[in-house]
Amino acid sequence: MNAAPASREQAIERLRHTEIPAPIVEVARVLQEAGHAAVLVGGAVRDALLQREHGDWDLASSATPEEVQAAFRRTIPTGIEHGTITVMVGPHDAREAVEVTTFRGEGVYLDGRRPSEVRFLRELDEDLARRDFTINALAWDPIAETFFDSFGGLDDLQTGRVRAVGVPLQRFEEDGLRTMRAVRFAAVLEFELDRETEAAIASALEVFDKVSRERVNVELFKLLGARRPSLGLEPMLRTGLWERVLGADSRGEAEASMRAVDALDPDAELRLARLMWPMRGD
User: Fold this and answer.
1) Mind listing the pLDDT tens digit for each residue in 105-114?
2) 236 bridge partner residues
3) What is the pLDDT of residues 174-185, one digit of tens each?
4) Which of 54, 74, 129, 171 has the most other CB atoms within 10 Å of its CB?
């Protein structure tokens, strides 16, 4: 059963009762008191709404890296060229690190992997517009308790759909790895791929080919750790990703492999070995 909240009001109530680490809330409060927007964005917001275990909270702000540095006594310019500053909070013997990333837009992607430039922005909507999927383009202000959903991500959580923000092919041409992320989310969340989003994957395979094998493997192993990997493997087969990632198989071989993988224990290495087995000969 889909655990997504049934309404915006329920989403706000769920986020309001989600435990967020105190240092992150404190950094958000200080930034807002200095006149800047500061919100939680991305996957942790999505997973909190779905009542799933989530990873790190991502804090984004309208403050430029220099303004973040000015607002706190102890900071580290961990990724200042990309807009990320690490803020150290708490007493000297128990400091905790909180990363703050400036709202940003990106220039033309010349190689399907990296933008030609990073532009810092003041508006949250512009930052959310560059994200990959609507279910990841969600934001929560833990101070004002305001929920931001500019692209229908909550509706897609409710219907169980992975849908690109804006024009799907444009999102995939910006970063070829997003094609693998699409099928990984379908498997892990047990969602369906939006029709237009899936259709765009085949047209982005040349961009996908530029992605490093290491990045692809990270997504593949996450997919294979899902309860039913076939939910991501099936769209891989339909779109041509399967051949790029796992090699050529006949439709019958692939379908048999998917059934076998779903029946195995959720061990990504074991499941990968089963997927590769037909290629080594019966």
Assistant:
1) 765 555 555 6
2) none
3) 999 999 999 999
4) 171
Question: For the packed helices 178-189 and 230-239, what is the interaxial angle rounded to 10 degrees?
Answer: 150
The DSSP annotation for the chain comes to -----SSHHHHHHHHHTS---HHHHHHHHHHHHTT--EEEETHHHHHHHTT----PPEEEESS-HHHHHHH-SSEEEEEGGGTEEEEEES-GGG-EEEEEEE-EEE--BSSSSSBS-EEE-S-HHHHHTTSSBGGGSEEEETTTTEEEESS-HHHHHHHTEE-BSS-HHHHHHH-TTHHHHHHHHHHHHT-EEPHHHHHHHGGGHHHHTTS-HHHHHHHHHHHHTSS-THHHHHHHHHHTHHHHHH----HHHHHHHHHHHHHS-S-HHHHHHHHHGGGG--
* pTM of the predicted structure, to 2 decimals: 0.91
Which residue shows structure tokens 């198989």?
A: 249
Give the pairing of strands 96-102 and 84-89. antiparallel
Type of residue found at 145: E
Mean residue pLDDT of the chain comes to: 92
Q: Are strands 58-61 and 75-79 parallel, antiparallel or unpaired?
A: unpaired
Radius of gyration of the chain (CA): 20
In this structure, what token pair is assigned to residue 239? 């779109």
The Cα 281–Cα 271 span in angstroms is 17
Using a 10 angstrom Cβ sphere, with 0-12 exposed, 13-18 middle and 19 or more buried, the burial of residue 105 is middle
- 94 close to 73: Cβ distance less than 8 angstroms: no
Tokens of 174: 């910006």
